Amino acid sequence: MKTWHLMAATLLASTTFHSQGQAQQSPPPPAVLVETVEPHVLAPQHEFIGRAAAVDKVDLRARVQGFLGPRSFADGDPIKQGQVLFTIEREPYQAVVDQKTAQRDSANAALANADLQLRRASELLRSSTGTQATYDQRMSEQLQAKAAVADAEAQLRDATIKLSYTEIRSPIAGRAGRSAVSPGNLVGPDSGVLVTVVNEQPMRVLFAVTQRELLDARRNTGSAANQTPFSVRVRLADGSLLDEKGTLDFIDVQVDARTDGQTVRAVFPNAKLMLTDGQTVRVVLEQEKVAAVLAIQQAALAIDQTGPYVFVVGAGNKVEQRRVRPGVSRNGLVSIEDGLKQGDKIIVQGQQRVRPGMVVAPQPAPAAITAPR
Q: Among 105, 108, 177, 197, which residue's CB has the most CB atoms within a 10 Å radius?
């Protein structure tokens, strides 16, 4: 019995000693992912709401009245400059031209007779067989005949112009929109737009910029507003950026009193026809030729009541809380204007498990984490 009690006491003591040993053993330091602070090119970027506008756009209308003939195009077809798109019945206008041509010929014949009569009256006056009154009468008749010829030629030109209006041609090259009137309808100057032709290459994009933004651009670049070295991009409705870059070519000379902004215009080649007249887009302006700045992953930045901070892994793998002043942020990166130096190692993943002064087990962050998104 004593032996059994001794064995139990020995087992209990061993178990107690083993438990105390486990309690005294410290847990391993938490693993965190870190990246090294390095310079990045992070140019200042601004976005504005813009609207695409065609360089050339024309609304074709009927300039004379008549029944509309067959169309020579389909909706959406490419159109050449000078191409005939519609015809209006020519016969009534051709008849007027023929009539005015005959009137002009008659006026020329009357003028020829008046010239002849004037020469005869002049010869009779020189031979003293004619009178001054007769000569004056023939002179008046010749002037009236000349005026009649001028009037007939003007009426013929007017009739010819109206005849030319029976062919509705496109003054620009572009693409035809939807035709609003079908052949066979009676059209005229009051019939509205028959079709719109839009030249989509190149395409302009207009957007408004505030006075403060213009002043900042001029101060930062030291150049005129429409000569600033900006890269101009367009963000489409799905969030993607247009492959082409644009150029700023115009800033309005007036300020909108309601918004205190000026209209700025950029031009894009629009080779793939991704921009359409009237389309709403976002214009992205990015300053070119900027110096590299220290930048970190935005996920590494935290904010409390005091302000933004990051966790830095220092000597002995101890964690330090470092207050920073962030600057420009874009594509998952944020520039740091103060608080960090090149070569510092900051925690980009695992911040929730650490506190200042704690020893951690740092591991380099994978490229998928450190690369800009």
A: 197
pLDDT at 1 over 60: no
Contact 180, 193 (CB under 8 A): yes
| Structural domain boundaries in the chain | 31-40+292-370, 45-53+202-287, 67-88+168-197, 91-164
Bridge pairing between strands 167-169 and 174-176 = unpaired
Region 93-102: what's the mean pLDDT?
96
What is the amino acid identity at position 237?
A
Q: Please say whether the beta carbons of 208 and 285 come within 8 A.
A: no
* pLDDT tens figures, 345-367: 888 888 888 888 888 888 888 86
Q: Which residue has the higher pLDDT, 219 or 305?
A: 305
Q: How far apart are CA 34 and CA 339, in angstroms?
A: 17
Residue with tokens 């005959």: 102
CB atoms within 10 A of CB 42: 22
How far apart are the C-alpha atoms of 118 and 138, rounded to whole Å?
5
Q: Are 187 and 181 in contact (CB under 8 A)?
A: yes
* pLDDT tier for residue 276 given thresholds of 50, 70 and 90: very high
Question: What DSSP line would sit under 280-299, residue for residue?
Answer: EEEEEEEESS---EEEEEGG
Say whether pLDDT at 222 is over 60: no
User: Cα(362)–Cα(346) distance, rounded to whole angstroms?
Assistant: 10
Q: State the CATH class of domain 45-53+202-287.
A: mainly beta
Q: What average pLDDT does the chain have? A: 84
Percent of the chain with pLDDT strictly greater than 90: 42
How far apart CA 64 and CA 226 sit, in angstroms, is 44
Q: Specify burial of residue 152 (Cβ count, 10 A radius: 0-12, 13-18, 19+).
A: buried
Kindly state the tokens that stand for 339.
């608080």
Helix, strand or coil for residue 361? Answer: strand
CATH of domain 31-40+292-370: 2.40.420.20
